[in-house]
Write a structure and sequence with these properties.
By secondary structure, this protein is an alpha/beta fold. It is built from 13 helices and 17 strands. The structure holds pyridoxal-5'-phosphate. Pyridoxal-5'-phosphate (PLP) binds next to helix 11.
């Protein structure tokens, strides 16, 4: 089916601005100066489409990609063959041969993974690249200080492969006042000193904004590339990349005192005009961004007007209060921006008690996708 025809049948559409993605990468690369600016493209490129993101970033000059799982790594390799591709999940047991064949670089997360990779490399007679993850406080992935000391001391183990990166991950980078940042930085210095001369990586997007002390040799921004908010407070300087729109299916009137949607959680305080759009939580629009979550519901934007959601978000439908919008500006067939340049994705996420990351990575498969700005 032709794209225009498909869009004619769509109730939700995404517009993904690849030029904005490339621009965001360039602006982060500028902020990180001498540091190599890589990119996290896990979660299907934060919902933008992993192959498109990888190819776009690669064209912009990015040479190092971080994926979560091996399958994402393989997809990244084919979309951006000149990039090195790290797999943050680490080395899955017995999978070393497949990593080698796929050209994937495991981020080794525990001593067993380090030993398994070393033994595989010895058997294969090749010093294949790998990273080592050091745990500086997240208590999620990576070697503890004690484990790192043991591994560093076992020189014949580490010498069997090519240790191309030592990395760690920030716990509270979005909150510059949090003392954990400085503590992690200190531990990172202490732990990476065990692996002298090996390139170091600590900064995700928040780490980039924390300043040069956190940049080291390779940065790993994710959310900022895709236009989301990295820091808890202050302006978000990044360009929005994803616009999610929903189609107005019908509009109708409802009288003061009536309720809208499941659970009757919201009673109309005036005679209202309601627009019903054709996406819902099955499209990753968080249910708690509507009414019934104990807060004011999120807003949407239609032809120049900001309008609040009314009632609960359903699986496939969302109601908007368009009482204050002239009928000509919101009628059947119109497209409503649910988030994008006028409604920041993080504002919608905040209403649902979550973060832009979750909305972007959970967009679902029903939208038609249009890529703009790509070459
Ligand atoms: C997701 C992730 C990143 C990117 O983080 P953002 O906050 O999206 O910039 C970097 N490093 C690791 C280990 C990650 O898991």
């Amino acid at each position: 089916m032709a794209h225009a025809e498909r869009e004619g049948l769509a109730c939700g559409r995404l517009t993904i601005d690849l030029e904005a993605l490339a621009d965001n990468w360039r602006s982060l690369a500028e902020r990180t100066q001498q540091t190599e600016c890589g990119a996290a493209i896990k979660g299907d490129g934060y919902g933008t489409g992993l192959e498109k993101a990888a190819a776009t970033l690669s064209r912009a000059g990015c040479r190092t990609l971080f994926t979560a799982v091996p399958d994402e790594g393989l997809r990244a390799r084919s979309a951006a063959p000149e990039s090195r591709v790290f797999v943050l999940a680490g080395l899955l047991p017995g999978a070393a041969e497949a990593y080698r064949k796929g050209g994937l670089i495991p981020v080794l997360n525990c001593p067993d993974e380090v030993i398994e990779w070393a033994e595989y490399c010895a058997a294969a007679g090749q010093r294949l690249p790998a990273a080592i993850h050091l745990d500086t406080g997240m208590n999620r992935m990576g070697l503890s200080l004690e484990e790192a000391r043991l591994i560093a001391a076992a020189k014949d183990v580490v010498a069997r492969f090519d240790l191309v990166l030592v990395m760690s991950h920030l716990v509270c980078g979005g909150d510059p006042a949090n003392p954990l940042n400085a503590r992690q930085l200190e531990r990172f210095h202490e732990m990476t000193a065990l692996f002298p001369g090996v390139p170091r990586s600590l900064a995700n997007s928040p780490g980039i904004f924390l300043g040069a002390d956190y940049h080291f040799d390779v940065a790993r921004p994710g959310i900022s590339l895709y236009g989301g908010r990295a820091m808890d407070d202050g302006e978000n300087p990044m360009r929005p990349v994803v616009t999610a729109e929903a189609r107005v299916l019908i509009t109708h009137s409802a009288a003061k005192g009536e309720t809208v949607g499941y659970g009757a959680v919201e009673t109309l305080r005036r005679d209202s005009r309601i627009a019903i759009v054709g996406i819902g939580y099955a499209d990753g629009y968080h249910r708690l961004a509507g009414a019934g979550g104990g807060h004011k519901p999120a807003n949407a934007w239609v032809n120049g007007h900001v309008v609040p959601l009314v009632g609960r978000v359903s699986m496939d439908l969302i109601a908007l209060d368009v009482t204050d919008v002239p009928e000509a500006d919101c009628s059947r067939g119109d497209w409503v921006e649910m988030f994008g340049p006028h409604i920041p994705v993080d504002d919608v996420a905040a209403k649902a008690g979550t973060i832009g990351y979750e909305l972007l990575t959970g967009l679902g498969s029903r939208y038609t996708r249009t890529y703009i700005g790509g070459s």
